[in-house]
Structure formats: C-alpha cells, structure tokens
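Protocol step 4 of 5: obtain the predicted structure for the target chain.
Materials: sequence only (see below). No template structures provided, no constraints applied. The aim of this step is simply to have a reference model before the mutagenesis design in step 5. Sequence pasted as it appears in the construct record:
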Amino acid sequence: MVGSVGSDLHMEYLAIGDAVNLAARLQSAAQPGKALISESTAQLVQAAFNLTPLGEISVKGKSAPVAVFEVGESKPAAHIRRGLKSCARRW
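Step 4 output (structure tokens):
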C-alpha cells in the first residue's frame, strides 16, 4: 500500500505492507552487491533475468521460511520476449 502519512506539518509519501517488509528483510539478507527476491517476484521477472534459487530462509515476521532467488544478469533480448520493441531509432 502506498500513500501519504503524517500531518499538515510533516507529510511523507510511503510504501508500507507485507511486500515492503519482505523486500527489506531480503535486502538485509543479501550479500553486498547482490539482490534477493521472493518466489512471487521471481515468477514475474524470470523471463528477463537469470535467477539462482538459494532455497528457503527464515524471515522475521513470517511464520514459514521464504523461498529466495538471487538476481543475476539480464537475459539477452528480454525486451523482445516481453513483446516490447527496441526504442533505438534507425536512420
């Protein structure tokens, strides 16, 4: 969920909720320079990125372990598989 939080004197626009909390926990669990994502996110981006399954980890705030994936390089021509054409101009 995203929205404005605060009062008339101090207002911030924040993202809150389970997905944001999980992302913060995975960020903390990742090695420096690496990104970890959950299984639901992996399903959304698997056509565009090489993913390495790392098994399950315990995450604060979750009753069950969470399956995690390390995000690798983008796949060649991923934009074509998603149905998008290159934005490069041809002269």
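Step 4 remarks: Helices lie at 18-29, 39-45, 78-81. The chain has a mean pLDDT of 84.
Proceed to step 5.
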